[in-house]
Amino acid sequence: MKIKEITTAIEQYAPLRLQEQWDNAGFQVGDPEGEVTGVLLCTDATQAVVAEAIDLGYNLVIAHHPLIFHGLKKIMGRTPVERTVALAIKHDITIYSAHTNMDSAWQGVSFRMADKIGMTDVEFLDANTVPAYGEQQSDTAGCGVIGNIEPMPAREALKRVKAAFEVGAIRYSGDGDVIVSRVALCGGAGGFLLDKAVEQGAQLYVTADMRYHDFLDNSERIVTADIGHYESEHFTKEIFLEIIQKKNPTFAVAFSKSEINQVNYL
Predict the structure, then answer these.
(1) Tens digit of each residue's pLDDT (9 = 90 or more) over 90-116
(2) Is the model's pTM score more than 0.90?
(3) Domain layout of the chain by residue ranges
(4) Cβ burial 154-178 (10 Å sphere, 16+ → b, else e)
(5) How far is CA 251 from CA 8, 81, 238, 243, 245, in A?
(6) What is the CATH number of domain 3-99+234-255?
(7) Distance of CA 110 to CAs 29, 67, 91, 248, 251, Å?
(8) For the domain 106-227, what is the CATH code?
């Protein structure tokens, strides 16, 4: 099987045209025409992840975050990105990313978050009508999701979130005792959707990379929680796995064991 057959399956699920203008999803390094020997799945394609792929004999790394966001004028091994690119090229490793296109796709990143905490009646928080795409023939894409949980105090809901996403610590503002049943979620940096969460009737909004004033300015109208960027998105690997296994159930594919959250908690 050629590498491009796997990446085409991912793009049928999350077309590249859904990515934000500033993004750089798609092929980062390598040859789409190469025969794939195995796939290693990760959130971030680091030097350690590429080295793990080499050890496994796998020649395709699929990551959520792009390795290359900005143009590389030189590859001299001076930065982690340059060293990762050089190692991948030296060992014929192809690196591919599905980033904001997977965030925006139907049943993408935020939908997977909703699954993890048992939300029901899940829909896009900020939806856009688009030409039908993918096997589901969805005609919507968007940012974030909103749905329902059984009513419980916000603090209890946050405990559920903390366990489900393997979070070291949650930063939150608002009344932890307020009863919540309507929850909005956005994988990654989702502060831009706070107003939309309030407008859609959410009592709890869970995302990452929140600023202090996002908490301060909204603490009386919604419970806002920051669970960490990596924590909110690392289950994206499961989506990649399901797409690949649907394409070929017996194909060699694995989650990276060397990948770690670069943010630590004391």
Answers:
(1) 999 999 999 999 999 999 999 999 999
(2) yes
(3) 3-99+234-255, 106-227
(4) beebbeebbebbebeebebbbeeee
(5) 16, 29, 15, 11, 7
(6) 3.40.1390.30
(7) 27, 21, 34, 25, 27
(8) 3.40.1390.30
